[in-house]
Amino acid sequence: MWWLERPFLALLRREYAAAMRFAEDDHAEVMPSAPAAPCQLYVHVPFCEVLCPFCSFHRVRWRAPRAPRYFAALRREIGLYHAAGFRFGDVYVGGGTPTVDADELIATLNFVRTGSPVRTISIETNPNHLEPAVLRRYRDAGVTRLSVGVQSFDDGLLARMERLAKYGSGAQMCERLAAARGIFPTLNLDMIFNLPGQTLAMLEADLAMLHTLQADQVSFYPLMAAPSARRKMERRMGRWDPRLRRAMYRRIQQELLPAYRAASAWCFSRVPGLFDEYIIDQDDYVGVGSGAFSYVGGVMYSTTFSLEHYCRRIEGGQSGITQRHALTLRQRMRYDFLMRLFGGALKRDYVRRRYGSAFALRMAPELLAMRLAGATRHDADAIRLTPLGRYCWVLMMAEFFNAVNDVREQMREHIRVELESWNDEALAEHAGRIDISEIGGRTRSVS
Length: 447
Ligand SMILES: C[S@@+](CC[C@H](N)C(=O)[O-])C[C@H]1O[C@@H](n2cnc3c(N)ncnc32)[C@H](O)[C@@H]1O
Ligand code: SF4
What we know:
The chain is of the alpha/beta class. The chain has helices spanning 2-19, 67-83, 102-115, 132-140, 155-160, 164-167, 170-180, 200-213, 227-237, 245-256, 307-315, 329-342, 348-355, 358-362, 364-372, 387-413, 416-423, 425-428; strands at residues 39-45, 47-48, 60-61, 88-95, 120-125, 145-151, 186-193, 217-222, 261-262, 267-269, 285-288, 293-296, 299-303, 321-326, 345-347, 376-378, 382-385, 435-439, 442-446. The N and C termini lie far apart (49 Å). It is built from 18 helices and 19 strands. Mean pLDDT is 89; it is low at 275-280 and 433-447. The strands form five sheets. A nine-stranded mixed β-sheet has the order 9-10-8-7-6-5-4-1-11. Strands 12-13-14 form a three-stranded antiparallel β-sheet, with no helix packed on it. Strands 15-17-16 form a three-stranded antiparallel β-sheet.
């Protein structure tokens, strides 16, 4: 079936690349207008103690003395959105590793709550930060979901991922995870399948461990590697064979269902309610922090990827937004089609409210193709994914995030000198002298 997947993925890649093309435009720096209802807030903390070779997120090595300025800017940017009328119901803090500085993180969460009716807060962390006393401080600050990056319990794979020394062995992680159980309403474990060197037997051992741990929720991501990132990753982690992906995903579904329900195509949950970073449950979301994306009123926004430029903009009273891209009607429909079905169902009344009868007409090729392929089931109230459909959506979402990662890669290329100043101790001392200039709507750093 791999031969069938390849043209499908190539098609998607083109489509998503077009949807993610941020144009330089005169309104790029204008903050979006506040929607009537509370929306979702994504807060990006780009600091990590070590940088994993498979990761394409916007992140830099954590330098303790330089981080407080960034957190202060985050709070100020959230304040700008509050002042503009935005209210946030659900907050997701991702990274990077948001828990590198517990005091700053808690101050930021408290700040959001001063201006918004916050219902849920989800934060990401790594296994070396699972100290129960600190976790209880997060719970007292309103955190309802803790998401821990495990990736695998196999020590050989952890070593390939360069996570063994910093984040501990599989056995050490299990001990820490057991101590963290019961503190938050939801403890989620992030896992990756189809890693270089991973066999079906290794995956099965991970699945057995998940059963032993009885995690509330498991997010099992396929390894995502955009063509641009793949070579770099393979140099450090070994050859990657995407042909194993389908068999591995089938095994994951067999093992986790029905003890867990599929809360999305790659998130399996025992607990009601879901907060998955990748699910856009509400129509609009706002991303704050360097390199964060927002989607408000059919327009995508991106903040500057330069941390220096970001802090300067916020300190000058501007938002972090430097680019935007208004989606066409068809792109908006396809975006909703992707995101809603990823979450399991595309409700007919939602579509009617948003697009009237135009949706069925303009999306007819996609709706028909997915139905004929056996990927969707068309019920009276909603269109839903079949087990095969869930695998198709895993592929589609992975391609979507590859397109996002390509955008990140391009943006980060423009600020290479600045990023090196974070990642290289010797350059860090020159950080104060990095000069940021906007060239052609993009941020560039010049040493
Ligand atoms: C971006 S990290 C942030 C949280 C934390 N730093 C960590 O490592 O878990 C969140 C999760 O994204 C997933 N992830 C990162 N890069 C990925 C990739 N290339 N393919 C699939 N999943 C990836 C990992 O499972 C990771 O735990
Ligand atoms: S996977 Fe997590 S810890 Fe590793 S570089 Fe990415 S954000 Fe940082």
